[in-house]
Amino acid sequence: MVSSLPHPTTSAGRDGLAALLARPAKAVVALDFDGTLAEIVPDPEQARAHPGAVPALSALAPQVASVAVITGRPAGVAVRHGGFAGVPGLEHLVVLGHYGAERWDAVTGTVHAAAVPPGVAAVRAELPGFLDGVGAWPGTWIEEKGRAVAVHTRRATDPEGAFEALKGPLGELAARHGLVLEPGRMVLELRPPGMDKGKALAEYVRESGAEAVLYAGDDLGDLPAFAAVEKLRSNGVPGLLVCSGSTEVPELAERADLSVPGPSAVVSFLAALAEAVRTAD
Asked: What is the set of active-site residues?
């Protein structure tokens, strides 16, 4: 049985939800992956979309203009970990990977990507020795992300201490190679500048001609997407901001129109939204 659709706590959020329900064929539903559709786990390679995510999305996607997954992961990785390929109902799903630098379209099953900046390779080569030089933090490890490199502290003996101690030095390393540092939930990512989830979302909404937008996320990297929706709202495009609740990132919850407690609740919300759109038709 589909749970009832939760109500946004802000007037702007209520307007956004009302616009989506009134004109679903003109609405874009955009979602982060890790922490929103998939639980955060110690090893990102083991992260998988919640079991109910694909059924909920495949019920919702045919009723709206588009569903876009916007993630810092490589697009192909998000597709595999999400189980999005070849699913009936998801023919027009789009995955914008590496903050929009890569794009996978379900209709073609292919990934389009720009060249990787040379600074990424330089940081990748330098990072192991660099970490040894700034102090020993047992359990800290490096994730290779293709267009980016990330240092995780969640498995360190002192996760928050390692995170705070490494943030400054890694920011300097990133800047030296023309990259930027993106802090997250116990992860510090070094990546090329010029793209973030806000720019990726704004460009996709503009491309699609959407008249309403929903965005759901859980981490600091989702703040630019929240800002993009807020700007769209100021320009007359209704929007709804959903926070996949985390006590680690109160900044997101404070700006959300609706907060739900993690991926399981996000999936329930998407299923309820699909049902509400269907019955409103």
From this structure: 32
